[in-house]
Amino acid sequence: MRKIKILVFVLCFVLFFLSACGSNDKHTTIKLGEVTRSLFYAPQYVAIEKGFFEEEGLNVELQTTWGGDKTMTALLSDGIDVALVGSETSIYVYAQDSKDYAVNFAQLTQTDGTFLVAKEKQDNFSWEDLKDSNFLGQRKGGMPQMVGEYVLKQHGIDPHSDLTLNQNIEFANIPSAFVSGDYEYVQLFEPTASVFEKEGSGYVVASFGEESGQVPYTVFMAKQSYLKENEENIEKFTRAIYKAQQWVQDTDSAEVAKTIKDYFEDVELDILTSSIDRYKNQGSFAADPILDEDEWNNLKKIMKEAGELPDGNISYEELVNTEIAEKVISN
């Protein structure tokens, strides 16, 4: 009987100890939704893999929400806490008079991430070559499409009259549509552009990111209410992202590729490395999370040129919070 009492006591002590350990676990869960799975978001995956979120006491649950509309629906309905998506989506939501609109608080990428890929190899490419061509573009209203049209116009090309433009293909199906169709040019992200070059299916002839300048292309955002109620956790989140941004800036592309390889199992390591190198060389990865006003104004200019900028005052002060990022950097 005495042995049974001792055994019960030991079991109770163990259960109490385990319960106490659990109660001291200060990790806070943040549900993060990314608009797509993209090599363009390398610093985000680095923050997870290098344990930067964990160091801040955060448990980040990453899910891919596949598309700007779905991402914002998930954010506004509390399906996710933070969204990684193009900042144009925050403008669309704000223009609908949303009471609890989304606020951009940390920038991840600062240029367009697409490249102009030609089906045939061209040693002396000129933007004039696009005239009268069959061009496979991106979805209407999204940042890739708006930047693509903006760049074409900067080179004196009207995308709706000087060439045949197709914008009806779903994002995921664009690469296969280009290969199987009679398109002469396509707008593609990495690593697909590099894969095409390796296979001989297409050749990168220009960068839309280099041509369009800096824009808040992909940004972390949250609802106003969430930011107010979770300011400390958002600061921790931003600090982890900043650590990752600095790490990517200071680390060679091969090491970055190895770190995030598990997120792109079907892509060979050499392709990941060359793709990251291409993005680093053109300054696509933001070195810090601050979204400045010049970038915001460039975004509005691009949206206006595409006929997608809503009427009214799209206020930088209303839709962008730089205080958190500035605090993180200063500390």
UniProtKB/TrEMBL annotation:
Keywords: Signal
Family per record: Belongs to the bacterial solute-binding protein SsuA/TauA family.
SUPFAM superfamilies: Periplasmic binding protein-like II
N-terminal signal peptide: 1-22
GO cellular component annotations of the record: periplasmic space
Name listed for the protein in its UniProt record: Binding protein YtlA
Superkingdom of origin: Bacteria
Subcellular location as annotated: Periplasm
Gene3D superfamilies per record: Periplasmic binding protein-like II
